[in-house]
Amino acid sequence: MQRRKAKKEDIPVIAQLLMDDPLGAVREGEDLAAYQKAFDKIHKEEQAEIYVIEDQGDVIACAQINYLTYLTYQGGIRAQIEGVRVHRDHRDKGVGAFLISQLIQEAKAQGCHMLQLTTDKRREEAVKFYQKLGFASSHEGMKLKLN
Predict the structure, then answer these.
(1) Is 22 strand, coil or helix?
(2) Which pLDDT tens digit goes with each residue over 82-115?
């Protein structure tokens, strides 16, 4: 199992990972052009990266990490994790923990003082998973849907 930066060729598999989820099944879609456009934009940003985990040449997990500079913490940098997905055949086998450990290493290498993520409250298993890895529900997140 190894981590690497995602490539354009990975987009169909990443899209499938995002869709293979009860919430993703509702909000994601089959339009690979939309994912391609987003990938191109993210790939150009210096403050963002998409990673995949490969096992025997197959992409089995993915996640995005963004680096955000804040005025708080004296201009501190936080890493924000998004879109963590593990292929259903590889869940409960340590893949997710490996992926998160790799992202923690990346965040430390970038000089981040904090790593944060959000997960939908309906994803009870995900909440337990992140808590097991040391993440704490320290804040109440709020969102405003714009469309």
Answers:
(1) coil
(2) 999 999 999 999 999 999 999 999 999 999 999 9
Q: Quick check: 86 and 41 in contact, CB under 8 A?
A: no
Q: Which amino acid is at 27?
A: R
**48-55 sheet: strands from edge to edge:** 2-5, 48-55, 58-69, 77-86, 114-117
Cα–Cα distance measured from residue 10 to residue 55, given in angstroms and rounded to the nearest whole number: 14
Percent of the chain that is helix, strand, coil (3-state, to 5): 40, 25, 35
pLDDT in tens, 64-77: 999 999 999 898 99
Level-2 CATH architecture, domain 2-132: 3-Layer(aba) Sandwich (3.40)
Report domain extents, the chain: 2-132
pLDDT digits (tens, 9 = 90+) for 74-91: 989 999 999 999 999 999
